[in-house]
Amino acid sequence: IALIGFGVVMVYSASAIEATVRYRDAQFFLKKQVIYAALSLFVMWLVSRVDYRRMKPFTYPILGAVVLMLLLTVIGFGHKAGNAYRWLNLGPINVQPAEVAKLGVVTWLAYSLSKKAERIKSFSVGFLPHLLVVGVLCLLCLKQPDFGSAVVLLFLTFTLMFVAGARVPYIAAFTALMGLGAVVLVRFSSYRYARYLAWADMEGNRNDLAYQPFQSVMSFGSGGIHGLGVGRGLQVLYLPEAHTDFISAIIGEELGFLGILGLCAIYLVIVARGVKIAWNAPDDYGSFLAFGIATLFGVQALTNLCVAMAILPTKGLTLPFLSYGGSSLV
């Protein structure tokens, strides 16, 4: 709840100038984020009142809905944002199916893995079917293209299969194979390879492909230890889409190293609590569900921060609870 409230404040700080220029309303993004936050808190309260075991009958309908939404996105119904078709227009609401897919995969894996119990060690029963289903979702994500979400889905799958007791040699072999596949996808995709080269030489590409990560790193650097103060950051003038995927850069500038350290600590607490809930769960289904969601938060936060600090090339993943947008937050 504190992160969501903090996120609303930081979205306003990061977007006020862009909103003024584009919409002549400094509070344009703030108003929408407040609505998303209120809806999110209501959904959280609602779901917290339902016994998680009652979700089991909805596992396959949720998975089916996720596949359908991803399919609609790639066959022509997707709405373009940046250079990718990642959104579905549902009247006044834009939904990002990849965000729903991450939770959909966790709920399905938790159900399937808990049901198979000892058979999880079998390649044909415990490993291959899960890899095939998630592989289809990953291909649909890559078709958008959304490389970052595909990587997150695979990471969630291998992590949950490891926790459930799948054989480590299978996981290790397929992780190496997927890593090789990722290298091929980057090397033989002109825009991905160009983005990788720009990331490897940000100084030389600071005015074109590496403009956004370069400005993001500048933002972190200018914040120093204590930051410039909320609302006093100057990089909002130069950093594109500062209120979405790169909101951590504005936090770094306005609250400094200590602010980012505090943010990382809060994410660590959330992940630790999730793992503790998983450890104490009365059944395997609850355990896998909690561990999967905790992993999702941790991986997404870590990847987003690494991208913003230019430790990784640009991926297009949101910062949980903080980035502007309804799909991720709800």
> What is the mean predicted local confidence, pLDDT?
90
Q: Classify the beta-strand content into a percent band.
A: under 5%
Radius of gyration, in Å, reads 20 Å
Based on the structure, what is the oligomeric state of the protein chains? Answer: single chain
Which percent bin holds the helix content?
55-70%
Low-pLDDT stretches are none
Strand order of the largest sheet: 1-2-3
What is the number of E strands? Answer: 3
Structural class per helix/strand content?
A: mainly alpha
Biggest sheet features? 3 strands, antiparallel
How far is it from the N-terminal to the C-terminal residue, by CA? 13 Å
Gross geometry: globular
Order of helices and strands: HHHEEEHHHHHHHHH
How many helical elements? 12
Give the gist of this structure.
By secondary structure, the protein is mainly alpha-helical. It has helices spanning 2-23, 28-48, 59-77, 97-116, 123-143, 147-164, 168-187, 190-200, 211-223, 247-280, 284-308, 326-329, and strands at 78-81, 84-90, 93-95.
Written overview of the protein:
- This protein is mostly helical.
- The protein is built from twelve helices and three strands, in the order αααβββααααααααα.
- A three-stranded antiparallel beta sheet has the order 1-2-3.
- α4 packs parallel to α6.
- The model has no long low-confidence stretch (mean pLDDT 90).
